[in-house]
Amino acid sequence: MKFFLDTASISQISFWKKYGLVNGVTTNPTLLSKEGNDAIKVIKEICKIVQGDVSAQVTEKDSKNMIEQAKFLKSIHKNIVIKLPCTLSGIEAAQILGKKNYKINITLGFDPSQLSVFKNINITYFSFIIGRVEDFGDNNVEKIPAVKEMIKKLNNKIQFLAASIRNERQLIAAAINGADVITVPPKTWEKVYNNKYTLDGEKSFMDSWNELPIEKRKKYEIKK
Ligand code: E4P
Question: Is residue 224 part of a domain?
Fold first, then answer.
């Protein structure tokens, strides 16, 4: 299983890379827009610092223009994966680009049934969106096993990419139900590694430790 970082922030990529949590990066128009810089410059910079797939999403609406834009995006770097929406236009573009062996990440997948058409289309990733659905009070965690099963039955070359991960519960559900890749926003990793009980536990150990007189703990501690 791999972890991608769901961001376009160079500083966040550099930070989380140190922990081995950046096997690739997924961007989207919202994430690129948040950076407020020239989008192509940002994508190039990401490709420079990441050894792995970097998804760049099309911003065109009809399939002909998506294909045109995909050609250009692909030319930026060998690791670029073209991200296409799971709309009828996106699917048409995937049919053409798949035949030309482009690496494709189908995004905005909200239901396992949407995988049906990819039985015969050459795509690399199917992004199944989890957190965004819960923002609206629905639940996509329960559909995760069906995504895995559908991929197995239809076209097991497709990698199951779990996306829009807002919390620990969604991350665990994706991991234990066979996601090949989980793309995690930096905010979620911050939450995971600032676990309240871990931080409280560390503080409580230190408070107890400091109750021991200094001469009785000084040999145990490093000299500063
Ligand atoms: C997936 O394709 C997107 O990049 C991303 O995971 C969506 O996340 P969001 O729901 O936080 O926008």
Answer: no
